[in-house]
Amino acid sequence: MSSLSPLHVSHSVRHGDGGIAFAVSDLLAAQQRLGIYSRWLTADQFDPLQRDQHLYESIIDCKPNIIHFHGLWRSHTRIASRLSASKLPTMIAPHGMMDPWAMAHASWKKELVWQLWEKKALNSSVCLHAVCQSEADAIRAKLPNVPVAVIPNGVSPPLTLGHPLPKSPWSSLIPPDQKILLFLGRYHPKKGLEPLMSAWQSVLTEAKRNSWWLVCIGFGDDGKFQSQLENFPIERCLVQGPLFGVEKEAAFQHSSAFILPSFSEGLPVAALEAMSFRLPCLLSSACNLPEAFDSHAAIRAEPDTTELIHSLLYIFSQTDHELQRMGDNSAQLVKNSFDWHKIAKSTQQVYEWMVGQASCPECVIMPNK
């Protein structure tokens, strides 16, 4: 059993907090399988009026020797610098929230939070956690004097592979001989849904000719996107609410390809999950998976209507054999680079360095002196 006792702290355990909740849950489980005494505490369980003090006291009561914060711009990082001053080593993972597009969105609010506590919280950390190299570059552009560990998100093997195939969530609405292009994630402007809808309407003739449907599975906007599509339907486009567990896996298994034309991401768990199900992917460069393009597991799908039209027409033109070959490349990439066991080992090495038990690991980028 490791002597490490890290405590993960985020705003919420709920899926409405986006991919952070899924990433923390999987990382926690992977660390525990290594014999690390990892736990998870969320800020939203405390009353907002006394949240800072109650969260701080609960963290101290847990007696961790490392605090690993996840996400920015919420209340939980307000106490990070206070914990650092108490000699508790902290690491903060922005999860893409310091990327240029994310910083520009609601920028005046973020600038206020940055000046009030976020800049101090980040600068007081022993180390920051970037999920990809481009995020590390964005962090270092604003915080050049703090070490940055580059450790990706991961993906767990599908639970339903090798088991009887469950019905698709759209089995009563779409004929079984149709190909499905799946979007799965938050319904949020940064995901590129607006240009995707425009592009889809422009390629409907080819979609029909090649038997493709667009299915969107998601959450996060109080049902507005789903309601909009119900009132003003788009042909061969189906929008549904969130799915979890076996139902979510059924959605991946019954799809032919996955799309995420995002403006801004950390490292999207949904894209990694899609690749683990051997799906060819259409991804924007903001998904921070250049290796998916290099290994021919994905094609580019930037959040621009004209470019998305070209991307959609390209995937429609692929034969079943070509789609399968891309899917095989996807699965191999996930197996080689995004295995949770390897990722948990990397976090263990960083934690051991943070508490003085080991030398600095290779994944940590030190400040330029």
Question: What features would you describe in this structure?
Answer:
The longest helix is centred in the C-terminal third of the chain and has 18 residues, at 320-337. With 369 residues, this protein is of the alpha/beta class. A seven-stranded mixed sheet has the order 2-1-3-4-5-6-13, sandwiched between helices. A six-stranded parallel sheet has the order 9-8-7-10-11-12, sandwiched between helices. 43% of the residues lie in helices and 15% in strands. The chain has helices at residues 19-33, 51-62, 80-85, 100-104, 107-123, 133-142, 193-202, 204-209, 224-231, 245-253, 269-276, 290-294, 305-317, 320-337, 340-354, and strands spanning 6-10, 39-42, 66-70, 90-93, 127-130, 148-150, 179-186, 212-219, 237-240, 257-260, 281-283, 298-300, 364-365. The two termini are 37 Å apart. It has 15 helices and 13 strands.
| Elements, N to C (H/E) | EHEHEHEHHEHEEHHEHEHEHEHEHHHE
| Shape verdict | globular
Number-wise, the strands total: 13
- Rg for CA atoms: 21 Å
Q: Largest beta sheet, briefly?
A: 7 strands, mixed
Mean pLDDT comes to 92
Judged by helices, strands and strand pairing, the structural class is alpha/beta
Strand content: 15-25%
The level of helicity is: 40-55%
Task: Give the CA-CA distance, first to last residue.
Answer: 37 Å
